[in-house]
Design a protein that fits this description.
The complex is a heterotrimer of chains A (about 325), B (about 450) and C (about 350).
Chain A (H helix, E strand, L loop, with lengths): L1 E4 H15 L3 E5 L15 H5 L4 E3 L4 H13 L3 E5 L10 H15 L6 E6 L14 H5 L5 E3 L4 H13 L4 E6 L7 E4 L11 E4 L4 E5 L2 H9 L8 E5 L2 E3 L3 H11 L2 E8 L4 H12 L9 E5 L8 H7 L3 H13 L1
Parallel strand pairs in A: 2-3, 2-4, 4-5, 5-7, 6-7, 10-11, 10-13, 13-14
Antiparallel strand pairs in A: 1-8, 6-12, 9-11
Helix pairs in contact in A: 1-6, 3-4, 7-11, 8-9
Chain B lengths: L1 H4 L3 E5 L9 E7 L6 E2 L4 E6 L4 E5 L4 E6 L6 E3 L3 E6 L2 H10 L2 H10 L1 H10 L1 H7 L20 H10 L17 H8 L43 H16 L2 E9 L1 H10 L3 H15 L5 E4 L2 E4 L5 E3 L1 E2 L5 E2 L2 E2 L7 H16 L13 E4 L19 E5 L3 E8 L5 E16 L5 H16 L4
Parallel strand pairs in B: 12-16, 16-17
Antiparallel strand pairs in B: 1-8, 2-4, 2-7, 3-6, 4-5, 6-8, 9-19, 10-11, 12-15, 13-14, 17-19, 18-19
Helix pairs in contact in B: 2-3, 2-4, 3-4, 6-7, 10-11, 10-12
Chain C lengths: L2 H8 L12 H26 L14 H8 L7 E4 L4 H7 L3 H8 L23 E3 L6 H16 L5 E6 L6 H13 L3 E7 L2 E2 L2 E2 L11 H5 L2 E6 L3 H16 L5 E6 L17 H8 L3 H11 L4 H21 L29 H6 L4
Parallel strand pairs in C: 1-2, 1-3, 3-4, 4-8, 7-8
Antiparallel strand pairs in C: 5-6
Helix pairs in contact in C: 1-2, 2-3, 2-4, 2-5, 2-11, 2-12, 3-4, 3-9, 5-12, 6-7
The chains are: A alpha/beta (about 325), B alpha+beta (about 450), C alpha/beta (about 350).
Chain lengths: ~325, ~450, ~350
């Protein structure tokens, strides 16, 4: 066991994979000599060479498309979008080429697309987004979103080993803020949910950076017993874990950092409404970013992103219901 | 099922019927729970200390809940009722209407009716909502709804939810409440255990209520009306607040009587016009005093007290009355009086008065001490015009006794805002204006 | 397919007057084109009979582009084949019955009914099926070539795309990436004069073959109605690729002789233009060559027609897919299997003992 930041855990997973499997290849903008915008691949080029830690042209569609090509001839490409926001430029290759490939012609596309996502640091409308729901809506793409250092490493190993396209949502705000013990060596974290804290009066369902927010918001709510369920994987979505939490707690608050409409939490809410109706003792409550681009200035950004206070208030309201 | 309907409930709140109005009373509900209602259709009548009015429905749908009893007074903004709109609304009539209506609904909406019977416990709870009586928080409150998990646990354990005391918001039965009953430590009356040998049903008598004093024989008419109570409260508040003084002046109404026959208008219109002129001349009386906050008003918004017979009294306001002629004032007085009596006044009609005239003199009374309509600082009372022998002095200074139509104007004024000299000057101005009308 | 006939006709023939193609190879090219035309004509007939769901697209008049190019590709090479390139599938080894089944949405089709008509690629034969956003496959081919280069393999990737595709960003991204990394990839621009109804002068201001130089590699223009010219250009491009000299853009100039799809009457194309291109029909051109070499073309035609009849009968008798597993296969549950090798009938590969 070693204590690592979330960022170090991601780097460690990538380094382990590059060492263990010669099929593994990193592709992205400024990831080679420079070591990446967030220094995730710092020092990689020296150890593995610039062929395997490849500085690509500034072309997101090409990064994904070429990764698909490399994958179908036996490589295990790990693509980095410099910011998750930029995936819009590679959307077609990911959704139409990679996502549909196996269903149409039985051809697996084992690629990982790393998406540094999320806001909270004045990134503005093009460096703060949480686009995961776009890919939940696109068949054939798995989506995972770790909240801890251990899960960041374990999920990344599992994503690279997975024979399918996987969007790996790594939250920028967690990079250096989250630290934790990480097991040594290569290990896989299953694409399933994790009870971050068990409770019985209410469950807060969250993923990524919102797990910490949920835990902080519910640490002391006048003695109420609050469960926090960390989804970890959005595709596949761990229905059994969600329904189990709801059956025990009967009150549900769902937190997304993403824009509210059709976010991952909306799918969770729909699932709960459909399959846990008779377990509910109150409305399913959602806390998410309103449907606005993420504004730049700190007071504006803080006003739209879900924070501890909003989650706390939502829990209090629902507890009192 | 009932949970679905919560998705699209529109609140009907006690409206703000004037800046200073803080509360209102529901006079009558025009609808019952389960009734279909169109947006703008009257849902209830309310009474405030300014006005009685109808409250239009804010949305089309089905009346889901009536939360305020008739005669109950609630603060402005309090939710009085809820209207279910959208899908949930469609199912409501079948649940709540008595048999004949339900049959009609069922023809067009068979699915919701079937859902009712399939759900068991909620049906009973919703059916109880038929009588729009009690408010929220009571044990068997109408419109009381249960969450899916509460309904399911109740069904599984045979719990009568109407007997479960809710600890949630507004007395809502929560999961823990029904679980407490299931686990034997809840508050359900039905869950009481049979008495043991040593337990007697005996309970000490409650302490005797103090005996009411012997009362005279009365007509049992149900006590004061809401309007009466409100007038009473308003008047008492004025007397408790203002330093009320009353000053009288005797006025020769000969010129007024002559002029009103010419113009075909009431004496009140002339008095109103003279009062307005006097207020322009002595603007200290065209003012509001709210605590220590004294405001002279630019416009003269003249309140005219209108009797509603046995029901009471209301004071509609003629806004910017200083812009009106005697004929204009007469027309407006006539209009507001008619609308007051037919209960057609709007909130705006009763707001913003800066001075009030009251005119109860048609029955022959000659003097009164009117009560100031706060936050105004003065009210002028016009009583009967009666013929009297008066001493008149001609242009040469010769006195004689003449028969003249006389009236006594009474001005109640707030000694906090002004002093007697000013009130006397004001009354003198009114008198001069009335007596010196051009012939 | 009647491979035996080709061998019987060509295996003993001397060099046929073509530097790299023996007579058997030249017959193979004709056979591939005849099969393509015959299968598409039969499919069109089935379409009119109501046997083909959706729409129907063909490559009538463009047979040489796919036949000539695919014929130059080795088994270990990888292809992204577009919707007017049926001959490439046939050369790689896809049988006519599977193609007709594919058109009709039958269980025996290459995608088992999951995708329509020409949207397929037999992964076991080294092909990646196209998507409707046509230049997307340029990037997939570029990525395959990138992997070959990284691994030091003497293989190449090839893809086709149309004149309309040159307007898309993925065209630029692929050309640029391949140029920057000097990848073993062959881009075949199938210039058939129209992107649906849009003519060339509304698509680009500069002949796209000239753009190759801007990306740092070779661009050549070829008569797309000459299968052997296509073969020659592609063979050279492939050689350049596996020698590490980078990509090639081949502009195959041809004409789409039918509408964009079955519903399109092509009234936006001048009649004279169609007539002119009809005289340059690629199948007839290859037939003339072989007749001059005393090849029994009529027998070949009869053989191909019989093969298509048999395939159509079999395909029509085949079942439609059942929806039992329609939800399955969205994700790969087991190991990812890479693409397999395809057929490569060119005698040159056999002579060299393989593709490299």
């Amino acid at each position: 066991m070693a204590v690592m930041t979330y960022l170090q855990a991601i780097s460690a997973a990538l380094r382990d994979e590059l060492r263990a499997d010669e099929r593994v290849l990193m592709m992205g903008e400024d990831i080679g000599v420079f070591g990446g915008a967030f220094k995730v691949t710092d020092g990689f080029a020296a150890e593995f060479g610039t062929d395997r830690v490849m500085d690509t042209p500034l072309a997101e569609s090409a990064i994904i498309g070429c990764a698909v090509g490399a994958a179908v001839v036996g490589m295990r490409p790990v693509c980095e979008m410099q910011f998750a926001d930029f995936i819009s430029c590679g959307f077609d290759q990911l959704v139409n080429v990679a996502g549909k490939m196996h269903y149409r012609q039985g051809l697996a596309v084992p690629i990982v697309v790393r998406l540094p996502s999320g806001g909270g640091f004045s990134g503005g409308p093009f460096h703060s987004q949480n686009p995961e729901a776009l890919f939940m809506h696109s068949p054939g793409i798995k989506v995972v979103a770790p909240s801890t250092a251990e899960d960041a490493k374990g999920l990344l190993h599992a994503a690279i080993h997975d024979p399918n396209p996987v969007c790996f949502m790594e939250h920028k705000h967690l990079y250096r803020r989250v630290k934790g013990e990480v097991p040594d060596g290569v290990f896989e974290t299953p694409f399933s949910a994790r009870v971050a804290r068990s409770g019985s009066d209410l469950v807060v369902i969250a993923y990524g950076a919102m797990v910490d927010v949920a835990l902080a918001a519910t640490e002391d709510l006048e003695g109420a017993s609050i469960e926090v369920l960390d989804l970890r994987s959005l595709v596949p979505l761990d229905e059994a874990a969600i329904l189990d939490s709801v059956a025990r707690c009967s009150k549900v608050v769902i937190v997304d950092e993403a824009n509210m409409t059709c976010a991952a939490g909306a799918q969770v809410a729909a699932l709960v409404a459909e399959k846990a109706f008779e377990d509910l003792d109150g409305p399913v409550v959602r806390v998410a970013t309103p449907d606005v681009p993420i504004p730049f200035s700190p007071p504006l950004e803080q006003a739209v992103l879900p924070g501890v206070d909003r989650v706390k208030e939502a829990c209090r309201e629902l507890l009192a219901y | 099922m009932s949970s679905l309907r919560t998705e699209s409930l529109v609140d009907v709140t006690m409206p703000q019927m004037g800046v200073s109005v803080a509360e209102g009373t529901v006079v009558a509900w025009r609808v019952a729970v389960g009734d279909r209602i169109e947006a703008e259709q009257t849902i209830c009548d309310i009474s405030t200390d300014k006005i009685d009015t109808e409250v239009p429905a804010p949305a089309t749908g089905v009346v889901a809940e009536l939360l305020v009893d008739v005669d109950q007074t609630v603060e402005v903004g309090v939710v009085m009722a809820r209207i279910a709109t959208g899908d949930g609304a469609a199912g409501a009539p079948a649940e709540t209407q008595p048999a004949p209506a339900a049959a009609a609904s069922a023809q067009t909406q068979p699915a919701p009716a079937a859902a009712v019977s399939a759900e068991g416990e909620p049906t009973a709870a919703v059916a109880a909502a038929g009588a729009p009586a009690a408010g929220p928080g009571r044990g068997d409150a109408p419109g009381r709804r249960y969450s899916p998990v509460v309904s399911r646990i109740a069904a599984e354990h045979g719990v009568d939810l109407s007997a479960v005391r809710g600890t949630g918001r507004g007395g809502r039965v929560r999961k823990q409440d029904v679980l407490a009953v299931v686990n034997g430590n809840g508050h359900a009356a039905a869950a009481e255990e049979p008495p043991l040998h040593i337990e007697s049903p005996y309970r000490p008598d409650p302490p005797a209520a103090p005996r009411a004093p012997a009362a005279p024989a009365v007509v049992a008419d149900g006590g004061l009306s809401r309007m009466r109570r409100q007038i009473g409260q308003h008047m008492k508040r004025s007397l408790d607040t203002a330093a009320t003084c009353t000053t009288w002046a005797e006025v020769d109404m000969s010129r007024v009587q002559a002029a009103r026959r010419t113009l075909g208008v009431t004496a009140l219109a002339f008095v109103a016009r003279a009062t307005i002129d006097a207020l322009r001349e002595h603007p200290a009386l065209n003012a509001w005093l709210d605590g220590d906050d004294y405001t002279r008003c630019e416009d003269v918004n003249l309140g005219i007290a209108v009797s509603l017979g046995d029901d009471g009294l209301i004071v509609p306001v003629i806004h910017r009355a200083h812009e009106l002629s005697v004929e204009g004032l007469a027309a407006r007085i006539k209009d507001i009086a008619r609308r007051a009596r037919s209960r057609e006044l709007t909130a705006d009609d009763v707001q913003g008065g800066t001075f009030t005239i009251t005119n109860p003199g048609q029955f022959g009374s000659i003097m009164a001490t009117p009560i100031i309509n706060l936050p105004q600082v003065g009210i002028l009372d016009l009583e009967a015009i009666v013929k009297r022998p008066v001493v008149v002095t001609d242009a040469d200074g010769n006195d004689s006794i003449a028969i003249r139509p006389m009236t006594i104007l009474g001005l109640s004024w707030d000694h906090r805002a002004l002093d007697g000299a000013l009130s006397a000057q004001f009354l003198a101005t009114v008198r001069r204006r009335l007596e010196d009308l051009p012939a | 397919m009647a491979t035996e006939t080709a061998q019987a006709a060509g295996s003993t023939a001397p060099a046929s007057g073509h530097e790299h193609l023996r007579l058997e190879d030249r017959i193979w090219l004709l056979r591939a084109m005849l099969l393509m035309r015959g299968i598409e004509e039969r499919a069109m007939s089935l379409y009119r009979q109501g046997k083909v769901p959706g729409s129907f697209y063909d490559g009538f008049g463009q047979e040489a582009v796919s036949a000539g190019a695919a014929f130059a590709m080795a088994p270990e090479d990888r292809l992204c084949i577009l919707h007017r390139d049926l001959a490439a599938h046939l050369i790689r080894g896809v049988t006519p019955v599977r193609i007709l089944s594919q058109y009709m949405g039958r269980a025996a089709g290459i995608t088992r009914g999951r995708d329509g008509n020409v949207h397929f690629g037999d992964r076991s034969l080294g092909c990646v099926g196209m998507v409707s956003m046509l230049p997307d496959m340029m990037l997939v081919a570029t990525g395959m070539a990138m992997a070959f280069k990284l691994r030091g393999e003497r293989r190449c990737a090839l893809t086709w795309f149309g004149d309309g595709s040159t307007s898309r960003g993925d065209f630029h991204e692929a050309m640029n990436w391949a140029g920057v990394q000097k990848l073993p990839v062959v881009f075949i621009l199938e210039n058939n004069q129209y992107a649906y109804s849009t003519p060339l002068d509304k698509q680009f201001a500069v002949d796209p073959v000239e753009r190759a130089a801007a990306y740092g590699f070779t661009g050549v223009t070829v008569d797309g109605n000459d299968a052997e010219a296509m073969f020659d250009a592609t063979r050279e491009a492939r050689q350049r690729a596996i020698d590490g000299r980078g990509p090639t853009l081949i502009e195959a100039v041809t004409m789409r002789m039918h509408g964009h799809a079955a519903h399109d009457d092509m009234k936006y194309v001048p009649k004279e233009q169609v007539e002119e291109w009809r005289r340059r029909d690629p199948v007839e051109r290859q037939e003339r060559r072989l007749r001059e070499l005393d090849v029994d073309v009529d027998a070949l035609r009869a053989e191909v027609a019989a093969a298509i009849d048999t395939a159509a009968t079999e395909a029509l008798a085949g079942p439609m897919p059942t929806p039992d597993d329609v939800l399955e296969g969205v994700f790969c549950a087991g190991e990812a299997e890479p693409l397999g090798d395809g057929q490569a009938p060119w005698s040159g590969f056999a002579a060299a003992g393989g593709g490299a």
